[in-house]
Amino acid sequence: PPRASPFAKVMTKMAEAMHYSMVGLNRECLKAAQTGLELSRRSGVYFCYHAFFAFAGFAALQMNDLQAGRSFLKQMASFEGNFKPFVTTYFYLLEANEALVSGNVQQASLHADLALKIALNVGSPGLTIRCHLVKARALDEIGCRPEAIKHLKQAAALSRRMKIEFGEFCCLFTKAQFDFDRGEEKAGWITLRKALSLGKERGLMGIFIDRPATTARVCMKALEAGIEVDYVRELIRERRLMPDQPPWHLENWPWPLKIFTLGRFTILKDGKIVRFAKKAQQKPLGMLKALIAFGGREVGEDRITDALWPEADGDLAHQSFATNLHRLRQLLAHEKAIQRQENSLTLDDRYCWVDVWAFEHLLEQADAEWKAGQIDNAVGLMEKAIAVYKGPFLGEEIEQPWTMSMSERLRSMFLRSVRKLALYWQQSGQLEKTLECYQRGLEVDRLAEEFYQGFMTCYQQLGRRAEALSVYNRCKKTLSAALGIEPSAKTEAIYRSLITNRRNGEPGNGR
Questions:
Q1: What is the pLDDT at residue 52?
Q2: pTM of the model as a whole
Q3: CA–CA separation, 494 vs 511, rounded Å?
Q4: What is the full DSSP assignment across 468-505?
Q5: What is the three-class DSSP state of 251?
Q6: Which residues make Cβ contacts (< 8 Å) with residue 226, sequence separation at least 6?
Q7: I need a labelling partner for 334 at 20 to 30 A (CA). Which of 254, 361, 420, 454 fits?
Q8: Is 321's pLDDT higher than 50?
Q9: Which residues contact 149 (CB under 8 A, 6 or more apart)?
């Protein structure tokens, strides 16, 4: 309240920071802590001053901002020696948090020990639970699993006894991670469902102290299994989580930007389609298309200017490049999505999902699994990749010279994948799945004659010659109308074999 005393205002901000930290609302926590610091400086009320640095640091690290977290830790450390026991505990926990995120797990374990010792002395259940959790995570990273489980069980028991739901949630989530890491999938799924159900019910968005990439991996598993999808997506957005490798196979990961270029050109920003109506927006969007066409990573300025402004001289081309890059960033409203280093651009895969990248990555994984003999995994990945491919690069747009290489390469990869998958199903004797595969191929590329050939052969094997002949007629009509050509010799040979068999008196339809 405006008439409240400076002390009351400072204490209110501390209560807010503590609450937001506990439920994992990190932006609100950071804002409350920073406001509390400013109020303390202006009023001279320094009762909570040092603790505000801790909560600001926790919030920054939970939002995956290591630089900001280290800054708050450094500022807090400058006052070390003037802390009360509670604040000293928070200081050691913040040091443990920074060390864990940085990968210095031995250091994280030592700081967790110091924090736990003080927390036990002051008799704070909430702080003791947090200290056990941090110690458990640090020990697990080191490889001391039995000791890690011991601390986790102590945190869970204290959480249940004191009815601290935030502690229960953190313990369940951490246990699920441990289970998955040990390959105990069944136990992991059971625990994760409990954790996410509780977290959703209570609106909990944080794990207090963790390694964000590790938490991101657990969230990936939840999205893959369809567990509490909306809640998990919200948690990912709140935490700004990203695993070590971008989850290209997960369209339901809440990417800030999703760019579709296969069969159409569409941009989703925070899940909503972006409408571009103005002519002035076409050049910035052309820059984005060219950036993707050239691979999206470390694309030189000269390649983009040569593609979009081939007639412009050096200075004018550079000016056009800079102007349209600024406009593109404004359109996307995510400044960090496009990184500029020296004279090259990179589309940052921490912020952007691009269907081309997803398609290529899935097929790369599929090839690796196939070579390793994991055929079922490979088949699943190929099916996902084929589902991502909705048509030619940039769809029905007029093809530009700089799009042709990407378009042809992707089409070739798609054709190869459909062919390989259909052959697998055919050799496995699953002809209905073979037909589905060819049908999917023709839905995307109606001019791929080899798919018609596969259809005809498969129907022939099933004794469904009438349908095989119908496919031939469709193939002939399509090729004539679109390209003005007749079917190839191979297609005609399959057709003649169908006619010959019919003349020999074999049944025309074996269903």
A1: 95
A2: 0.79
A3: 20
A4: HHHHHHHHHHHHHHHHS-PPPHHHHHHHHHHHHHHHTT
A5: coil
A6: none
A7: 361
A8: yes
A9: 136, 178
Print burial letters for 225-253: b (CB count within 10 Å at least 16), e (below 16): eebbeebbbbbbebbbbbbeebbbbbbeb
CA angle 323, 326, 331 (to 5 degrees): 125
Residue 509 pLDDT more than 50?
Answer: no
Check whether 511 has a pLDDT greater than 50: no
Q: pLDDT by residue (tens digit) across 188-221?
A: 999 999 999 999 999 898 887 888 889 999 999 9
Radius of gyration, alpha carbons of the chain: 30
Q: What is the pLDDT of residue 270?
A: 84
| Closest C-alpha to 59, from 89, 103, 101 | 101
Tokens linked to 163: 């009815």
Measured between alpha carbons, how far is 255 from 15 in angstroms, rounded to an integer?
33
The residue type of 292 is I
Distances (CA, A) of 171 to 124, 129, 186, 473: 17, 9, 17, 64
- HSE of 383, CA atoms in CB hemisphere, 13 A: 12
Distances (CA, A) of 352 to 29, 43, 61: 27, 44, 22
Q: How far apart are CA 327 and CA 287, in angstroms?
A: 10
Give residue 498's identity as a one-letter amino acid code: L
Res. 501 pLDDT band, cuts 50 70 90: low
Contact 246, 350 (CB under 8 A): yes
Q: Does the pLDDT value for residue 301 go beyond 70? A: yes
Report the 10 Å Cβ neighbour count for 459.
Answer: 25
462 has a pLDDT exceeding 90: no
* Cα gap 508→501, rounded to integer Å: 9
Under 8 Å between Cβ of 212 and 350: no
Residue pair 233/223 in contact by the 8 Å Cβ criterion: yes
Averaging pLDDT over each range in 28-32, 420-424, 437-441, which range is the top one? 28-32
Q: What are phi and psi of 468, to 5 degrees?
A: -65, -45
User: What does the pLDDT average to over 91-117?
Assistant: 94
What are the structure tokens assigned to 499, written together?
């006619």
- Unique residue bearing structure tokens 């439920």: 23
Closest CA to 421 of 398, 439, 438: 438
